[in-house]
Amino acid sequence: MEYTDKEYSLEVWGDYACFTRPELKVERVSYDVITPSAVRAIFEAILFKKYAMRWQVTKIEVLNPIKWASVRRNEVGATASTKSAGIYIEDKRQQKNTLFLKDVKYRIWAKLVFIPVSERPKEAFAKHKPGADENPMKYYQMFERRANQGQCFTQPYLGTREFSASFRLVDPDTDELCPALSAEQGGNRDLGIMLYDMDFSNPKDTQAMFYRAEMKEGVIIVPSLDSEEILR
Question: pTM for the complete prediction?
Answer without folding.
Answer: 0.91
